[in-house]
Design a protein that fits this description.
Shape: globular
Number of helices: 12
CATH topology of the largest domain: Hypothetical protein af1432
Strand content: under 5%
CATH architecture of the largest domain: Orthogonal Bundle
Radius of gyration: 18 Å
Number of strands: 0
Bound molecules: fe (ii) ion
Low-confidence stretches: none
Length: 228
């Protein structure tokens, strides 16, 4: 068990890591939304909510390292785990829980080969991915555009684009973020959300949110192509 006091310390640590953060899509507000969604997903499940809470707080603390690396080689899940490890080891948390929290952090990313294997890791992953669809998904996608000086709208031959800028894999890293757009992200990844979520509860939420995103991207395309 992780005491309430320790969980508060973990939350405060995350807050301090995000204090100077300039990425509106990956800040403490995002962390709190992911936490609340994860708690919702874990209700009625035999899940270790202490592990889930700690992992939610820490899952993006290494976000800056990826953001500041234009090469696209830095993986913020790996960086977050690196930052979380020594911090967690200073707290009185059993080693098995620390290992589990680190595993949840490492596997929260879609663009990685490190996949969630435990219920807790699946819940953290699903809660984080629900942030990519619906109204919040659209809002975050365009905040990402501003941050990366990417396109508001750009559509290309998806197969060719994926090969050129994402290594030809659905979960490939984006090589040049400035060539990306929310529409391309939607086409290559987010619209397939139902195929990569793990929990039924998250899939039910995603179904509703996905309809909103679909409508938004259709509307955006129609306006930009001058059809209305
Ligand atoms: Fe993340
Ligand atoms: Fe996240």
């Amino acid at each position: 068990m992780i005491t309430k006091k320790t969980l508060k310390q973990i939350e405060k640590f995350a807050e301090s890591r995000f204090a100077k953060n300039k990425d509106s899509a990956h800040n403490m507000d995002h962390v709190k939304r992911v936490r609340d969604l994860a708690i919702h997903l874990s209700q009625g499940e035999a899940a270790d909510t202490d592990v889930i809470l700690a992992a939610c707080y820490l899952h993006d603390v290494g976000g800056d390292a990826e953001l500041n690396d234009p090469s696209g080689n830095t993986d913020h899940a790996v960086e977050s785990a690196k930052i979380a490890k020594p911090f967690l080891e200073k707290l009185k948390i059993p080693q098995s829980k620390i290992d589990h929290i680190l595993d949840c952090i490492l596997s929260h990313r879609y663009r990685t080969e490190h996949k969630p294997k435990t219920l807790e890791a699946m819940i953290v992953f699903d809660a984080d991915k629900l942030e990519t669809v619906g109204a919040i998904g659209v809002a975050r996608a365009f905040s990402w555009v501003g941050k990366n000086q990417a396109y508001i709208y750009k559509v290309e031959d998806i197969k060719k684009y994926s090969e050129k800028n994402m290594g030809g894999k659905a979960n490939g890293r984006i090589r040049d973020k400035s060539k990306h757009s929310p529409q391309l992200n939607w086409e290559t990844k987010d619209k397939h959300i139902l195929s990569f979520l793990y929990t039924q509860k998250a899939k039910n939420i995603a179904k509703r949110r996905k309809k909103f995103s679909e409508k938004f991207f259709q509307e955006l395309e129609a306006e930009i192509l001058g059809r209305k």
